[in-house]
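Blinded run. Sample ID left blank on purpose so nobody reads anything into the name before looking at the predicted structure. Input follows.
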Amino acid sequence: MAYAARRLAGHPGIVFVRRVVTRPADAGGEDHDSLDEAAFLARAADGGFSLHWSAHGLHYGLPLSARADVDAGKVVVANLSRTMIAEARRRFPAVQPVVVTAARPVVAARLAARGRESEAEIARRLARLEDWHDTADAVPIDNSGPLALAGERLASLLHEAGEKVRLRSGVIASSFN
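Blinded prediction complete.
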């Protein structure tokens, strides 16, 4: 997603959502906003997220600005858990899942290289690779090879959606992966 975000920077119809995560902001990986667990849960209880969920021992949320951007007719791109696709569809009817995957050994090596999870946590994440939820219409992108290949595929899909929104006022399109 970061690759596509760089490629599409400045496109007026495409917004990449910065998630809120209960992980330190300097933990590496995605650029995100950070809250401690108590503050996150309080914000969630107050309706302070467009969508929120828990996975891998952390809490994740999309800020309310995501809803405002969808309502403004923009293509909103957010990184979601596959388990949240059905809920995202209820809240944002035009959701188009894009499922970025990689071969199991590639995923294992990448998770180990980032150094955030124990071997047991990596094994649990790998076990979830086959755990698909409500993604029959998902656009698959294989990220087993060079980042530029998968990144360009995602950027192309999003650019096409962004152009449709830009050219046809009133169309709401959302892409979540």
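Unblinding after everyone has recorded impressions. The helical segments are 2-7, 37-45, 65-71, 85-91, 104-114, 119-127, 147-167.
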